[in-house]
Amino acid sequence: MKKIIRTSKAPAPLGPYNQAVLSNDTLYMSGQIGININTGEMVLDDIKSETTQVMQNLKAVLEAADMTFENVVKTSIFISNMDDFVLINEVYGSYFNENTAPARETVQVARLPKDVNVEISMIAVK
Question: Which family does it belong to (predicted)?
Fold first, then answer.
């Protein structure tokens, strides 16, 4: 069974996809970028602020599915500059317990939507 997860507390999709899809007990979350839901503006002041906004957007989607970061089993991080990895990782890591952190890959890409610096997607399980 497939259930679409939507919340007004995270940015609306920029195309023909949903914020997340719940299939049985597994939540597949689309990538989030640093859009501030209150202003509609991109948070691009610095990489730590941008990553924090991305994580807050992901948190809102998790909450809409009655989950937390503890439910996350896999993440994918896409960054435009590998030199930002340490700062992104610092913010990202603050949302997880290191002993139960999810599996992850981090990939540098040529370009991201709206020319952001970081996009993160997640898979979570109830």
Answer: Belongs to the RutC family.
